[in-house]
Amino acid sequence: MSTDEATIKLTEIIKQQTDELNQKIEKNAEIQNGLLENIQKTIDYFYELKDGNHISEEAMTKYPLHLDNCKRGINNCIILAERLKSYVSSVNEHHEDLSYMESLNLTLTSMIKEYDAYNFYKLPNEIGSAEASLIIGENFITNYTTEKKKFNQIIVKEIKEMLDEAEKELRDFKILKNILKNLKTEDYYSNESKKYKIAHYIYLGLFLVTLIGALCISAYSICAEPIYFLDNFDYWFLKISFILVVITLVSFFIKQSSHYQSLADQANQTRLEIQAFPTFVTGIEKADEVAIRKELALKYFGREVDKTAHKDMGNLVSDQMKSTTEMVKATTEAIKNLKG
């Protein structure tokens, strides 16, 4: 899926969700307004009933004190209805599903009645029933709201735990992704480190073998001097030349060993830094991660080759050649003086 297609799809989803939310808000507003209208009608009805409206003259004449005896109950109904109205008005129509309130409309509608001489005697019972219904309606809304809040708290807690777990898995996935992304580079530096280590041990071995061989040959030459009947000039010329060659080789091998040891350590350090990079960049912004990658790229790639070791090798050979020449001259002069 291309970026444009994904954007279009996301736009359609957002539009669909927005339309559903707007429909829900409109439905909730319709339910809430309808219920508030019925509550207000009920309140107006009880005020009118208290003033003697909705009661026939015949009933009032037949039972003149009946209404006065019910006025306390009517006032209670007005108070309860006002309180119910306040509860309904406080409900947020944007986040709640108010369909459960629709059942109260029938209860409120059933409270509005007309009385005549034949049913006026029922007024006390019906006022008491209206009080009970209003209390039940109020408790129904408050209990429903309370239980829903508790339910939402539980759901929010569970969702938070799920989001935390998902965030942890996403963080682990990013680490794994960066590890896989750096794997080839890490393997390259690991192989280079091993290669330099091998070269280091080879030159170290040559250094030790040369040193031990030189000691053995030196010891043998002391014992073999009488056997080969070499004169002093030849003997000391060969011996000094041998010593200088050994010194040159030993110096070369130890410098090469140290050079490759340094390269191996550097490659291994780079490998460790690349290996630790995925964990290091976890949790930082993408732009910061890109900036760090650019900085490391400039650090690891495009550097000039270190020519210090080659320069040291050239200086070593040059110095040893000069030393050999001077030593040969000095030895020749010394032997000539001995013969003279």
UniProtKB/TrEMBL annotation:
The keyword Coiled coil applies. Residues 156-186 form a coiled coil. The keyword Coiled coil applies. It comes from the Bacteria. The chain crosses the membrane at residues 201-229, 235-254. Keywords: Coiled coil, Membrane, Transmembrane, Transmembrane helix. This is Uncharacterized protein.
